From TrEMBL:
PANTHER family: ATP-BINDING CASSETTE, SUB-FAMILY D MEMBER, LYSOSOMAL COBALAMIN TRANSPORTER ABCD4. It comes from Rhodoplanes serenus. The keyword Secreted does not apply. It is a multi-pass membrane protein. Residues 30-332 form the ABC transmembrane type-1 domain. Belongs to the ABC transporter superfamily. It is found in: Cell membrane. This is ATP-binding cassette domain-containing protein. The chain crosses the membrane at residues 30-52, 72-92, 147-168, 188-208. CDD domains: ABCD_peroxisomal_ALDP. Its main location: membrane. The lineage of its organism: Bacteria, Pseudomonadati, Pseudomonadota, Alphaproteobacteria, Hyphomicrobiales.
């Protein structure tokens, strides 16, 4: 019971925000109310059909032709109403689903991507595995299964309330007869349906309970397998160059082995559950007749009364057996709720990381003239000290080379200066209204047009086409000027050197006030690197260039050199006098 209450609380926490949202709450509430009203109307038609059963079968027993014809016409009216309601219930249900899914997808994408939260979640270990599946699949399943189960539960409750009264009255009309003896047992038909359903529910839960955990794991294993397939596709060149196909095949088959093993466990459990539920449903077809037949053969019922009683008994039994018939859906839905709740918790943890008291604080200063770090200590996520910068000032137009041994934390220092690395303490201040851009060694190129890749993170049409063409030519990519509208996976089509040239063109177009180059030209030959730095100095004379690099040829391209040197457990940033550290 405690687990059920907790699950309902989590479900409500996930579902309620949509129906309270400022953007779509009116449409959502109206659609939900319409779907519920139609469900209630369908239950009402079921009650009318139950009453029709008694009249129709009595007409057959009495061979009353006129009554038979009129009842057929009445049934046609009920059937037509049922068809219209069923069609519009499906239509409005699907309309509600897509609107609800659109809102939840936008919310989760926002919480995941806003202010670098997706990156902080990775730094924390990303306890919510495969966020893509959570957003693409689990939200859809949460809404689809939730509406189906919710409407099914509502229908069962209303059906139970409607038919219990009917069945109780029919129990009074035809008392229980056993061995020719009449027993006065008020509502015995209701109690029989209740006992049958309770027994079925208990056994169903005992047999099917492991499906909740198995479904949770299945979704995880499936997502892991898809993720590694995508990894192989994206790194096809390196795998082919290393001849790693055999290793990758083994790795993928190992991942798929987990999918298969868990699937076999689901198959075994579902086989046991299906044995019971299939038998339960088959018995439920004749069980009402078994219970009612003594009264019928004793003359307590007409044929119409027998059919009405059987149908009413079946409706009550089905309503009480909702848990039995929907157990598989409930198990899948519970797994989805657990996954979304875990994703929610990971999102919250990522956001909380940006507000913990002991963190690197990045602020904008209206009167500042330089990016400055004060008493900055950069740490690893586990708390291990990595880099210290007691007093670092990077004024506008500065040309600074950052050196230090590999693994000393140079790239992590850049992440802290850019405001995406929260682990540590101290303060980084950025002049108000000034922009910072970081160029990593491997640039990110979104899948789409070449124009979109160059303009990123701005929109593809943010810059005049002739200017984009001209900048491409200046960075040595003039041959791509005619392919700006071509859609492709440019991160795979272009060499790393070409990607780095494209990133330089992106920086020239955006013209940031501070440009941090993290070995952003390391894949180019030295003359090309020198030419591109000269281009940046000419095109962006007011932009501060702060570079990480190991080549001695970078020294003449910068006016100042700082280096990370070992100081106890960490590396401390100091002014350097020699060549960059190798």
């Amino acid at each position: 019971m405690t687990r059920l209450i907790a699950a309902v609380a989590v479900m409500w926490r996930l579902a309620a925000p949509y129906f309270r949202s400022a953007e779509d709450r009116q449409a959502g509430r109206l659609l939900l109310a319409a779907v519920i009203a139609i469900e209630l109307a369908i239950v009402g038609i079921t009650v009318l059909v139950n009453q029709w059963n008694a009249r129709f079968y009595n007409a057959l027993q009495e061979r009353a032709w006129d009554t038979f014809v009129s009842e057929l016409l009445y049934f046609c009216v009920l059937a037509a109403a049922f068809i219209v309601l069923a069609v519009y219930q499906l239509y409005l249900n699907q309309w509600l689903q897509i609107r609800w899914r659109r809102w939840m997808t936008a919310q989760y994408l926002g919480h995941w991507l806003d202010d670098g939260n997706h990156y902080r979640m990775q730094l924390l270990g990303d306890a919510a595995d495969n966020p893509d599946q959570r957003i693409a699949d689990d939200i859809n399943l949460f809404i689809d299964r939730g509406l189906a189960i919710g409407l099914g539960l509502l229908s069962s409750v209303v059906t139970l309330a409607s038919f219990v009264t009917i069945l109780w009255g029919l129990s009074a009309q035809a008392p229980l007869v056993i061995g020719g003896t009449t027993w006065s047992f008020p509502g015995y038909l209701v109690w029989a349906a209740l006992i049958y359903a309770v027994v079925g529910t208990v056994f169903t839960h005992l047999i099917g309970r492991p499906l909740i955990g198995l479904n949770f794991q299945q979704q995880r294993y499936e997502a892991d397998f898809r993720f590694h397939l995508v990894r192989v596709r994206e790194n096809g060149e390196q795998i082919a160059l290393l001849g790693g196909e055999t290793a990758e095949r083994a790795r993928l088959l190992d991942r798929f082995g987990a999918v298969m093993a868990n699937w076999y466990a689901i198959m075994t459990r579902q086989k046991k559950l299906t044995f019971f539920t299939a038998g339960f449903n088959q018995v439920s077809t004749v069980f009402p007749f078994v219970v009612v037949s003594p009264a019928y053969f004793a003359g307590g019922f007409s044929l119409g009364g027998l059919m009405q009683t059987s149908e009413a008994f079946g409706s009550v039994q089905r309503a009480l057996s909702f848990f039995v018939t929907s157990y598989r859906q409930l198990a899948e839905w519970q797994a989805v709720i657990d996954r979304l709740a875990g994703f929610d918790a990971a999102l919250t943890a990522g956001r909380a990381l940006a507000t913990v008291p002991e963190r690197i604080v990045v602020s904008t200063e209206p009167n500042a003239e330089a990016v400055a770090a004060e008493a900055l200590e950069v740490r690893l996520p586990a708390g291990t000290p990595l880099v210290a910068a007691d007093a670092l000032a990077l004024p506008a137009g500065a040309r600074v080379l950052v050196g230090g041994p590999s693994g000393s934390g140079k790239s992590t220092l850049f992440r802290a200066l850019a405001g995406v690395w929260p682990f540590g303490r101290g303060r980084v201040s950025v002049p108000a209204g000034r922009s910072v851009m970081v160029l990593p060694q491997r640039p990110y190129l979104p899948v789409g047009t070449l124009a979109a890749a160059i303009a990123y993170p701005a929109l593809p049409d943010a810059f005049p086409r002739d200017r984009v063409t001209e900048v491409l030519g200046t960075v040595g990519l003039g041959g791509l000027a005619g392919r700006l509208d071509e859609e492709a996976h440019w991160g795979r089509m272009l060499s790393l050197g070409e990607q780095q040239r494209l990133a330089i063109s992106r920086a020239i177009l955006h013209a940031p006030d501070y440009l941090l180059l993290d070995e952003a030209t390391a894949s180019l030959d030295e003359p090309s690197e020198t030419a591109l730095y000269g281009l940046l100095r000419r095109r962006l004379p007011e932009t501060a260039l702060i570079s990480i690099g190991h080549r001695s040829t970078l020294m003449p391209l910068h006016d100042r050199h700082v280096v990370l040197e070992r100081d106890g457990d960490l590396h401390r940033l100091r002014e350097a006098t020699g060549a960059p550290a190798a």
